[in-house]
Fold this protein.
Amino acid sequence: MSLGKIIDKKKNDLSERIDKQKVPEHVAIIMDGNGRWATKKGLPRSFGHNKGVNVLKEIIKASKKLGCKVLTVYAFSTENWSRPTKEVDYLLNLFAEVLKNEIEEIHEESIKIKFIGDLKPFPKSLKNIIYHSESLTKKNNTFLLNVCINYGGRQEIVKVAKELAFKSSSGEIKPSEVNEELFNSGLLTHGIKDPELLIRTSGEKRISNFLLWQVAYSEIYISDVLWPDFNEFEFLKAIIDYQSRNRRFGGIESLPNESFEDSQYSH
Ligand code: IPE
Ligand code: IPE
Ligand code: MG
């Protein structure tokens, strides 16, 4: 059997283990490990970022095919400005190039693309491509791709708090009206269901300021694979792992009433 056929067979075997009724609607991914992937190969970090783009394309296709409805990816954090200017510039150029080259296909695939984060500091040329891509695809409703750039979870929460504080001081709302629902409606992800599954590649076990509010009850899957080596097979592994989880949301797994013995704590 050729290598390609073996890989296809392994993928099919995994696909068969997936419960199509329990596919997460929204998957969020911290695409990490590009730099280390390149460095390991003795290449400049930019090679890792380039390869990472191809992986993202594969994962968009895979998640859509599986029946997911929303994919949110972390492409550039508010903290990533602290990298060397050359790397930051490279990334911003890459975003613009990829978007220019791929937007037609994204549109043909009926994918709606949205950028989440503070776009103000980006060059005008990048902002223009972003606005064009968002408006071109805004009516697509098969699949939503959220790309987080200059995104920070804390900054997002502060933004909402500030808006609510202004509304309250102007009398538009009463302080007592502030609740989770109102707060949620001010987030950049308003109207989008929270991710059921959060994947981080490269083995790092942290959130790095990603979707702090939204991942309150997400299942977390850490893959040791560096993002440029991630693929559909690894993605399916994450889905199978997710499907094996017992999501309790603070409750307990449907235990029969009589199994709760409060008398044992009464002495
Ligand atoms: C993730 O890969 C991509 C971005 C943050 C833009 P990294 O560039 O963080 O790669 P590592 O973590 O240094 O290997
Ligand atoms: C998180 O990765 C941001 C993105 C993937 C865009 P980082 O590589 O920036 O995070 P840290 O520095 O490991 O926390
Ligand atoms: Mg990293």
